[in-house]
Specification:
- The N terminus is likely disordered.
- The two termini are 20 Å apart.
- It contains 15 helices and 13 strands.
- Strands 1-3-7-6 form a four-stranded mixed sheet. It has a three-stranded antiparallel sheet with strand order 9-12-11. The protein has a two-stranded antiparallel sheet with strand order 2-8.
- The protein is globular and about 75 Å long.
- It is 41% helix and 18% strand.
- Helix 8 crosses helix 10.
- It is α+β, with helices and mostly antiparallel strands.
Length: 349
């Protein structure tokens, strides 16, 4: 397959000064997705998100380019971000990148009874001390659409945490910093998904997490304890005591003698970061149009089925159809790539 890296919009980070000083953004959709990551994978994902910007996708969104941008981080950035020496980079990051390249994010809408599992990245490559990440364009809305809200995550505090569950909970709480937002009690089953503990069939990856005592100890109590002891986190986040039960940082919601939900008890320390507030308000007004590759695939389908009235397919149309066949994007059910379509397509090429 032809390497299209020279045709992509290139985002190269040569030193840490090009990264945000304090915060990286994560959309509401990604935060409330089903995605299980190890601690190192969380950090690699955060590095990518810290450099992600909607402007990088302008050509893609306006259909001047059908490729997602490519993000490359040079060796000095990697050493600083991961706290590793030059010799440690390759052996440490290789298994992390391999796992991350195969991760799928599960986007779910319980009210509509819908779910969708999509690969996070098209490519994760390490060469000559540089890490290159190509995101999956199918997730463009989840990556850069902040109209539904987002979290401003302090990457210094985030990287200081060692446990994957601590990083996950810290991200979740970071979504609700503003006085006008509140994290309501979360059902145990919903938390299983948010912590990435479910497979694609909705079954627990480890049966032990089905025991509330085990789940709360590992995924609630220990993360809260780690965050409360982390100096970077303590500067901005305070956990409160549940006087009724004596639990620190959370209160169980009971149905009889069974815990059915958890209410997190915490308080963000006041912040006068006006720039952060203004950036949040601006991002909340942004919207992201339809996936250009999907739009091209729809256009190609119409051309084929109307042939010869609307002319022939071009190279971009053919690439879009190939993306459908590979499962990268999905056409609506009323646009099947069946035998009738394939017969007409031979004439429209």
């Amino acid at each position: 397959m032809t390497d299209n890296k020279d045709k992509r919009f290139q985002v190269t980070t040569e030193n840490s000064r090009e990264l945000p000083n304090q915060f990286f953004k994560k959309s509401h959709e990604l935060i409330f997705s089903q995605l299980g990551l190890t601690a190192r994978e969380h950090d690699m994902m955060a590095l990518f998100l810290s450099r992600l910007h909607r402007e990088h996708w302008t050509d893609f969104l306006e259909k001047r380019d059908i490729h997602a941008p490519q993000y490359t981080f040079h060796i000095d950035v990697l050493k600083d971000w991961f706290g590793l020496s030059s010799k440690q980079l390759y052996p440490t990051l290789r298994p992390v990148a391999e796992r991350l390249a195969g991760r799928k994010v599960g986007l779910e809408n319980e009210e509509a009874e819908e779910f969708d599992f999509i690969p996070l990245f098209a490519r994760v490559k390490y060469s000559q001390g540089s890490l290159t990440i190509v995101p999956n364009s199918e997730l463009i809305n989840a990556y850069v659409d902040y109209s539904a809200g987002h979290a401003q995550i302090n990457h210094h505090a985030f990287r200081s945490l060692k446990s994957e569950h601590s990083k996950r909970l810290y991200t979740l709480l970071s979504r609700f910093k503003d006085s006008g937002t509140q994290l309501h009690p979360q059902r145990i089953e919903a938390l299983h998904g948010l912590y990435g503990l479910l497979d694609e069939k909705g079954k627990l990856l480890k049966k032990s997490y089905g025991q509330n005592k085990v789940f709360i100890e590992r995924c609630i109590k220990k993360p809260i304890e780690e965050m409360s002891l982390c100096e970077e986190v303590r500067r901005e986040l305070e956990f409160l005591l549940d006087e009724k039960t004596g639990n620190f940082g959370f209160a169980p919601v009971m149905n009889g003698r069974r815990i059915v939900a958890v209410e997190f008890l915490y308080r963000w320390r006041s912040s006068d970061n006006r720039a952060e507030k203004e950036a949040r308000e601006k991002l909340a007004q942004e919207t992201v149009p339809d996936n250009p590759m999907l739009a091209l695939a729809r256009e190609a389908y119409q051309i084929v089925m109307a042939w010869p009235l609307e002319g022939k397919l071009n190279e971009k149309h053919l690439l879009a159809i190939q993306s459908v066949e590979m499962g990268i994007i999905t056409l609506p059910e009323d646009m099947p790539l069946n035998e009738a379509f394939r017969t007409r397509m031979q004439q429209a090429v």
